[in-house]
Amino acid sequence: MDFRDVSLTALRVFRAVAEQGTFTAAAVSLGYTQSAVSRQMASLERAAGTTLLDRRREGVRLTPAGHLVLRRATTVLDEIDRTARELSGLPDRAGTVRVGWPPNSGAVLLPRALTALRASHPAITVTSREGSTPALVRALRSGGIDLALLSSTPPYRPLDAESPSLVTETLTERSLCLALPASHPLARGAYVDIADLRGQRWIAGPAAGEDRLMGVWPGLDERPVIAHTARDWLAKLHLVAAGCGLTTVPASLAPAAPDGVAIRPVRGGAQEQRRLLLARLPTPPDDAVSRVADALRTAARATDTAL
């Protein structure tokens, strides 16, 4: 098979697999069956005459040839999409910026940045998507998004091992906080001592997944009692308000806490720091991407100052 005969469908499937990290997740994102994704990938690798994906139990990783094909495929697909928009009379996507964000950034920082951006640069359109940090890194690499807000925890390892490295900057770095019912005895003080967390009931995120979702205070010297499991941070906080247990939150979410929830720092033990990073590919950003990045920086500074 000649690589020049590769279909656009195969290229789109390949980009989805590279971005999602597994055939199953790519199939869900595209609305295909897993077997259809496997067939498209097999045909693409036959055309390339080499392996594009290193298939592992935990997912897939691009081979050196896969990285080359992905870069070229992204360019081709972006040009095809741009042509389709021009033919249909839609404006070019040059004024559209795609942003990825982790769950703890969608409640305060991102809305503030978008509100300010609409006032200062109404011609820029921003689309966004939520995802885990590993998924958003893959989306950056595959060209699915232009900017990513990423969560990072100690010991602050590199986001991935690919080259060239992503361009990153720290927007905020603050300690993890505790969310507890406002009527809870521990909420009476200005802070909670870590020793008082023994024997508490916790509202935690699912243990499985690429990211450890927050919930139980890190470093407890006992096996925690998990009373409720929820992936969504807002669901966790409403369970806290209902008196169902305690959970952890980044300090940036304090302004969005519902009534009945008290946010307190924890004293004793090692401080649990959380960084929020802004990341992009190392290629020079266009004007629209730069302006959205500026809006995110400004919103992060305002949020940090208000806490």
Describe the model.
It is globular, with a radius of gyration of 22 Å. The protein folds into three domains: 3-87, Winged helix-like DNA-binding domain superfamily/Winged helix DNA-binding domain (Arc Repressor Mutant, subunit A); 93-172 and 274-306, D-Maltodextrin-Binding Protein, domain 2 (3-Layer(aba) Sandwich); 174-273, D-Maltodextrin-Binding Protein, domain 2 (3-Layer(aba) Sandwich). The strands form four sheets. Strands 3, 4, 5, 6, 10, 11 and 13 form a seven-stranded mixed β-sheet that branches. Strands 1-2 form a two-stranded antiparallel ribbon. A two-stranded parallel ribbon has the order 7-12. It has helices spanning 8-20, 23-30, 34-48, 64-87, 109-120, 133-142, 233-241, 287-306; strands at 53-56, 59-62, 96-101, 125-130, 147-152, 167-181, 192-193, 201-204, 225-229, 247-250, 261-264, 266-267, 273-280. With 307 residues, it is of the alpha/beta class. The protein is built from eight helices and 13 strands.
